[in-house]
Amino acid sequence: MDRDGPQTIRISLDGQAIDAQRGDTVAAALLRAGITTFTRSIKYHRPRGPFCLQGSCGQCLMRIDGAPSLLACRVLAEEGMICQRQNAPLGAEKDIFRAADFLFPEGLDHHHLMTGSRLLGRVALEVARRLAGLGELPDKPRAPVEAELRKARLVIVGAGPAGLAAARAAGDALRAAEGGVLLLEREPRPGGGALLAIDPALPDRDQIAQMALALQGEVMLDSECVGLYANDTALPGNALVAVRQRGRLLLLIAERVLVAVGGASQPLPFAGVDRPGVHAARGLVALPAMVGERLVVVGEGKELVDCARALRRKGYLLERVIALGKSWPAAADLPIEENQPRRALGNPVRALQVGDSRIHCDAVAIAMNPAPLHELASSVGAHARWVAEVGGFPIQVDGEGRTSVPWLFAAGRCAGLGGSAALNSGEAAGRAAGRG
Amino acid sequence: MTADKSIVCACEDVTVHDLEDAVARGYGDIESLKRYTGLGTGPCQGKSCEVAAMRICTSGNKLAPGAQVPFRARPPFAPTAMAEFAGLQAPPPSSEPQPGLRPTWGKGPHPLQPATPLPEKVDVAIIGGGIMGLALAWHLAGEGAGKVLVLERGYLCEGASGRNGGGVRAQWTTPTLIELAKESIAFMGRFAQELGINVWLRKGGYLFLAHDEETLRRIEGSVDLQRKHGLPTRIVTAGEAGEIAPELDTSKFLAASWNPEDGVVFPWPFLWGYAEGARRRGAQVETFTRVTGIETGQGRVRALQTDRGRVAADRIVVACGAWSPQVAKLAGVQLPNVPYRHEIVSSEPLKPFLGPLVTMLGTGLYFSQSMRGEIVGGMGDPQELPGLNQSSSLRFLARYSRALTELVPRLGSVKLLRQWAGCYDVTPDHSPVLGETPGVAGLLQMSGFVGHGFMMAPAVARRMAEWMGGTKDEIFERFALRRFAEGRLEKETFIIG
To answer: What is the predicted ipTM?
Structure first.
C-alpha cells in the first residue's frame, strides 16, 4: 500500500462521486459505499452484484475508464476513475428491460420462440439483436503492446501453498540447472488461499512469507497465466505459457509446467442466488470492506465451518449457518443446522427462505468447496473427472502429480488435493517436475 | 422486483429449468448441454456453473460415470485484450504435424454410446451427422427413400458444422455455387417454420475488402457474374464501406464488394433441427457411434461395420467433412481431399455495432458480430500444415488480434473469451466431391466443401436426395470424384478463412 498519498480517493459511478480507500478494488469501494447492483444480466436484465469477489465469476463486469466489461473485483480503484454500469439504458436501479424477467418467468426458450411465423420471427430477431451484448465499444483505440519471450525449465502456475511447496522441492532438484524454476502468481503477493486464514491446516501468513523467502527460483507476482498450449513452434520446449503482466503478455517456452491454480468459489442453484447480496464466503473474507452486519452462511462440510468462523472473526454476526449435508466437523460454537435454502429475497438480499421460515440478514454467504480450476490443464488434454466429494472436476494426477500429459504436473486444490493435502501434493509434484 | 428464477449460469442467464428441459430433449451430455443452453459460454467460461450443472446431471439423469467430465476447456483462461495478444510475435510454427486434442472422456467408445442394437439392414446409411448428413436424411426420409440411418461418432455439433463462424453468403465466383448458396440462404429464412427451431439468420450483408488493385479486379469480375445471377452485389468505395461498417480503418483497403443480402446464422440449431426433423419423418440418427469398416463385394457396397455392430446397407453416403478421406479409405477409395485446421475466436459480448460480416481477401481475416454480441472471427494461416488437428494455438490469437485491431483499432481493449478450431475439407480445385464412386456402386460422396459446406448444405442435400431418387442433376456429374482422374477441375477462388 502506498503510504505517501492520501488514504481516501474519489472515483465515480454513473457520474456520482464515490469515496474509496486506497488499495480497494472498484468492487470493494462500491460495496463500502452501499452500492450492490453492479450490472444487469444479459438476458433477463436481473440485477447483479459481485458474487465471488475473486475474479472468476463475471457478475461484477463494469465499464471502467472507457473499457467495457472489466471485473470490478480485479481492478484497483484509482483517483478519478470513471465507472459505469452496463446493459441498463435508463440506469441500473430502474432498468426498464427487467420486464423480460417477468415476461418469461420460466425462462426464455430462444430456440422455439416465435418459430410459427416468419414475420414474428423477424421481429424477435430485431428485438433480440438490439438487446444483445453487454458493453459498448471501448472509447479509444488501443495499440498492440509488445510482448516479451523467455525460456524456462519449469514454470509453476500459482504461488499458493501447493505452488510454493512445489517450487521449493523443484528448486532443490533444479538448483544447478540453467533456467531453473519460475513461479507465477496472479496476485501482488504469494500465498493464495492461505492468505485468507480460513483453513487452519494451511500455513499461516508468517510461514508463507518464510516459504517465499527461502525459494531458489524466481517469483513473478502480478503475473496471471491466461493460456497454456502444447508448443507448436519451431523453438525447442514442450509448452507455451501466456502470462499477463500489468497489461502486457509474456510468452514463456517451458520444458515442464506445474499447475497449482487452486479453485473457484461456487454458487448454489436456488431461486434468487444470483441476486445482489449473495456472495462467496471466501470473497467476503478477502474483502477489505463489510457488507452489513448479519449474515446467513450456507454451505457444506469443513468448508462451511471454516468459512463461518472466519466470517465471525471478521466481525459478522452469524444469524444462521445452513449445512446442506448431514456431516460437518463438530462446531458447538456455530448456530449450525442441516437444511436446504429455497430462495433469496430482496434486492439486495435481505432474507433467505430456508424450509418454511425466513431468516433476515444483510447478506448471504455461500461456502461450498471451491471447485478445482482444471481449465489450464484440461485445455491441453489433461484428464479431469467429476468427483462429487471434491465438488468439481479435479485434474487426474498420480502420487507425483503427473497428469495424462507427459510434461504437465498438477498439485493442490486444482488436482483435488486442497487443504491439508496441499503442501504434500505440491512437494511431491515439485520434486517430480524438477527431476523431469 | 425480480422473478423467482434459479439461475445456474449467471453470465448467460441459464436456469435450472433450462437445463432440465435440455436433458429431457436428449442434450444431456455436457458438450450438448453447453451448446443447447448456452451454459458456460459467457465471460466466466463455466468456472461458476459447470459444477452446478454436473450436480444436476448426476442427480436426476444418472449420467454414466465415464461421461462425468467437464466440457472441453477453451483458452484463454481469463478474458484478455486483443491489444495484448496483438503484441505477441509468435515464433515460427513447427514443421512437425501436431497431434491434436484427445477425447475428454479418455479411451475407447464414448461413455454415452447407446446400448441398443443398430438395425440389421437399412436402405441408406449416412456416415457423418454434420449438417450435410442430417439435411440429407431429412430430405430422404421425406421422399420415402426407405429406411435411413445416420451415424455420428460424437455429439451433434462435434465436427465442423458446430465449429464454423456462421457466415452465409451468395457471393461466389462460379454459377453453381452462387445458385446453391442462394437456395440455401432462402431456406434458412424459413428454417424455423419448416423445422421448428430458430437459426437466427441475420442479413447484415458481407463486405469483401480488396487491399490491392489485383484483388479489386477480381472482385469486379465476380460482381458482374453475381449480378447476372440476380444478386444485388456491387462494388463500394472504401468510404462507403466505412459507412456500412463504421469502425473500419478505411485507409487499409481500396474498395469492397458488398451484398446486403448475405448474413450470419447461429450454426448449432441447424443440426438439432434437421436431426429432430429427420427423426420425426422416421429416419434414425445415432450419436456416439463410430464406423469401423465398409464391406464391399461384386463392385458395390454391402454393409457398414460399427463399434455397435454390423448394418447392411444398399447405399452408403460419406458425409464426414474433413474425415471423409479416412472413411472412404475403409472402402478402399482414395479421396483427394486434405484436412486443414482453421481457428476461430469469440470475444466478450458487445452491444451491436457491426452489421455485416467483413473479410479481407488478402489475409483471409474475417469477422462478424453474433446475435449474442460477440465478435466471432478467424484467419487462415498460410503456414498451417495439413492434418486433422482441432487444437487451439496462441499463434492464431496473435495473428488474428493484430490483423483485426489494425483494421478496427477500437477493438484493441476488447477481450477474447474463447478460441476453438475445426477442419476445412480441402479439394484440389476448391469444389466439392459429390455423387457416385468409380468402382464401388452405392458408395456416394458428399464432401469437399472447403470450409463453406455449412452454408451450401440445405440446397446440396435437397438436390442430392432428389438425385438419389432418380432425378437427373448435372452437379453430380460435374462434381463427381472421377473428375480428378480425368483432369477436369472446377475452380472456385473466393475461399476465406
So the answer is: 0.95
